[in-house]
Automatic annotation (TrEMBL):
Location in or out of the cell: Cytoplasm
Pfam families the UniProt entry points to: RRF (PF01765)
GO cellular component entries: cytosol
GO molecular function: ribosomal large subunit binding
Official protein name in the record: Ribosome-recycling factor
InterPro entries given in the database record: Ribosome_recyc_fac, Ribosome_recyc_fac_dom, RRF_sf
Function statement: Responsible for the release of ribosomes from messenger RNA at the termination of protein biosynthesis. May increase the efficiency of translation by recycling ribosomes from one round of translation to another.
Domain of life: Bacteria
Residue span, Ribosome recycling factor domain: 23-185
Record keywords: Cytoplasm, Protein biosynthesis
Keyword Glycoprotein: no
Family of this protein: Belongs to the RRF family.
Amino acid sequence: MSDELEIDTDDLERRMEGAMASLKHEFGTLRTGRASATMVEPVMVDAYGQLTPINQVGTINVPEPRMVTINVWDKGMVAKVEKAIRDSGLGINPQTNGTIVMLPIPELNEERRKELTKVAAQYAEHARVAIRNVRRDGMDQIKKAKGNGMSEDDVKFWEAEVEELTKKHIAVIDKALEAKQAEIMHV
């Protein structure tokens, strides 16, 4: 095998791992009936004239399984943090105690659990599509190398390598989705 005709599978794997990390983050934002600091990460607060992530205006803690607290650093921002949480669509009604905004996490009903499993499935499908796009890029590299004189045996070898990498990552996504859906449906 010639060095200049090798396919960079490390780059393909790194990009597939990026899709996996993105999926893990998206799964973390799904509310499962248990408190998690990641569930409030997408919330943006109108702080000092610009939208700011909530974790940049206060400290997020999970003191108990059904409670998230945000210790807001600037007393003047407490009302804005509260408003941002109400407007975020999380379905949580914040309670204030001085500079601490408390978010009691209500029990999920069966209908909401089923909705969340569908959202998790959408997130997983987006990750699968991202993996397949990386696969397509790898196959395009192989076609280009074939045009530059890569042997038929090398083409088959690299296609098998890319295919194996793709199948491995798709299987991990499927397993993660199954686990997340079981976690959401667990009462």
